[in-house]
Amino acid sequence: MLFVDEVTLDVTAGRGGDGCMSFHRGPNLPKGGPDGGNGGNGGNVVFRGDGSLNTLVDFKYRPILKSENGRQGGSSVKTGASGRDLVVDVPCGTSVVDDATLEYVADITSPGQLVVVAQGGEGGRGNHSYRSSTNRAPREFEHGTSGESKRLRLHLKVLADVGLLGKPNAGKSTLLSVVSSSRPAIADYPFTTLVPNLGVVQVDPARSFVMADIPGLIEGAASGHGLGTRFLKHLSRTHLLLHLVEVAPVDGSDPCENLATIEHEVETFSQALAERDVWTVVTKTDIASPDQLQAVVESLNALRPNRPIFEISAVTQRGVRELTFALMEAIESNPKLNSDDSSALDRDVLDDILNRTKSRTSSTPDEEDQVEVIYRRD
What we know:
2 domains, Rossmann fold, alpha/beta, Spo0b-associated Gtp-binding Protein, Chain: A, six-stranded mixed β-sheet, rod-shaped, disordered C terminus, five-stranded mixed β-sheet
């Protein structure tokens, strides 16, 4: 299916109904009192989190959302019917931003969460509401007010506890396939992964966490090379990052330079994202000699001395169990990783994204940015 993770919508809430001007008439009441009722309120536009959705592609064909208007008031002090709310399901992990002001509107993270993104107008008062001891035959009435009308940007980002960072072919998809039941595409060429994949890592029957594998990054990713900006933002909801580094890259590059290059791209893209906790994971240790592995580990330790470092081989599963248990303990013991602070951290990254994309106004991503992919949670 078509994976769409950014979209711009025009939303308009319903207008309030007008009040009614009416006077009661009857066989014996040729000049009865005012009995015009109030108008009904306009319907709201409401977003609702849906855990079964994982793309914004539906909005590609539905870029305009409008709720019902309120009905006009009637005689005999009848209040007009209120317009029905328009409830629209969106994927969990959707951030909503006002396109005109770039203000953060809402963050939809859980199934069933309801957020009013456009408030309906209020119904106008009928002339019955204007009656008084000095004005017994009022002819005043109010028109209903207009509902809110906005252009909103929706940003979809995956929800995970741990995110995998690294160059193409660093072993991210292989690691995810080993520690979870997720089956991402794996091949010996760069950019095999074209979409974030999620997997549940079951440490024991009662303990688990979610790991996200995003497509590999290259130099210039923060400027959009290799669709880097489209993928980097998905790390904003993963508050612990594993930077996977090949011990012996097939292109002969230096592992330390590879690590520095990718982390420079992350810092360039978002300072808030660069401040997340990062662990270094040396991968494919089965193809390196002990001396070569030790030299690489010592160099990486010297480059990032205050950072945990792990040595794994997804093929032989060397060090994989120790890594997953360490991750589980870190998630359980660090309140920053599983508290309400997560939304604030994500908002910091979103602010950085918005500052870099102020000129983006199209309702859907450019054609060259759309990718035919399978996006699933296993």
